[in-house]
Amino acid sequence: MTDIRPAPATSKEQINTRAAGVVGLAVMCSRVLGLVRETLFAALFGGGREMDVFIAAFRIPNLLRDLFAEGALSTAFVTVFSRTIALDGEHSAWRLANKIATLTLVFMSLITALGILTAPWIVGFIAPGFDLEKAAMTTALVRVMYPFILLVSLAALVMGMLNARNVFGMPAMASSFFNIGSIVGGVLLSWWLDPAFGPQALLGLSIGTLIGGAMQLGVQLPALHRQGFRFRLDFHWRDSGVRQILRLMGPAMIAASSVQVNVLVNSMFASQLGDGPIAWLNNAFRLMQLPLGIFGVALGTVALPVLARLVAQNHLGEFRTELARAMRLSFVLTIPAMIGLMVLAEPIMSVLYQHGKFTAYQTAQAAGALQLYAMGLCAYAAMKVLVNAFYAIDQRRTPMLVSLAAIGLNVLLSWLFVFQLHWGHRGLALSTSCIASINFALLYLLMRRHLGLLDTALLLRTLGKVMVAGAALGAVAWIGKYYLLADWATQAFIPKTIYLVALIGAAGLSFALAAWLLRIEEVRAIVKTMQRKLTGSSRPPTP
pTM for this structure? Predict the structure, then answer.
């Protein structure tokens, strides 16, 4: 069996850009399929009452997935598992994995049963504005979908084991299989239940969600088997590694909760705004998550095991360097996407969603939310890296306390924007972006205070250059939108799509050219890497 202990201290640990690229490509595939899923569901069911019901019902198991499975469990497990590999070797790490897998299986089965029993109270809490019929439909779907949390918890655990073994591709692709299963299974079952895709067909979408969750787990198991893992029930939970993971998970759940709990708060307020706002916010947030998943999640996923090993080996200088580098890269990659989404929100939403039962009015409402969600995109991405860095240095309470404060502030801002300023669902999107930015700023200041040095001057210089290059992108996008896509609501689909794709390409090239002229090193490194790939050269370029 392959030895997975770290290289000697003379070998420098780095966040592998190639691995981040693999994860980014896989996550991009997943997010694109997720976007296809949302687009298809919106076309079949529209952006009103039915989709409000399905999205609200899926919100709780999906929230638990993000907080517990793909948030707290994955983060805590990778941190401790990587440390166990580095210090105690492979055999101890696999024993720890069996204990945690058994604990997850038992605990999440109990959570699933409890969720099914308490579904009416859950719906009353997450959607207080729903009428009786809407609430009853939501309750039925919640009960069908609750086992999803068990499936994806196990899938997240398998993903953590593979990531700690530096296997990133298949775990990142696993969520693509969730989307494939939920699309194919959900649409076919919905059509079988109701060819007109009325309210009864929503049951098919719910069952399709379970099919997707089972596929997300199943496709990773062969890769884990090849790494040497053999599952055995192990109820010996009085273990130092198990205790470390559980100690990390509590704060990790709260720290990872900021974004998703704020989305839940949005749903609670949106349920009181009539039919449609929950669906519009979901459509916008899904599109905003596309670049976030490609860049932010990829960087955070690849960075965590590297940063954990650097701390375990007491290489704090390299830890600072890699953390600062990851944050700069997150800004370089997400600021262009942020500006592009803000300027081109209406035509993008029109091309993607304005089909079937989804109207031009619903498109405009979703686009307004997208513009405000996008304002927090770079903060979301950088926060993915920062939160994982805090766990790597065993400062788990810091992100927890910051997230608690952020959740409370979001409730206050949401109330202010919706009920006092009457900004509707747009106010909810703006509140979420404000909270993400505040959350990141606080975490950055606290990390800098802890480390003493974090290349802040270089980060600000890079940020300034990226904003200048982003202004070039924004200008090209705005001019093109004014001349080519001014009538986006009534333009035919094919010419509108051609214009939009060409405009995105031109705006992207303007950013790349401006960034090159401004000597943004991260962009130059990406361009040179692409040149080597295209020319087939494996040697680094000569300085």
Answer: 0.78
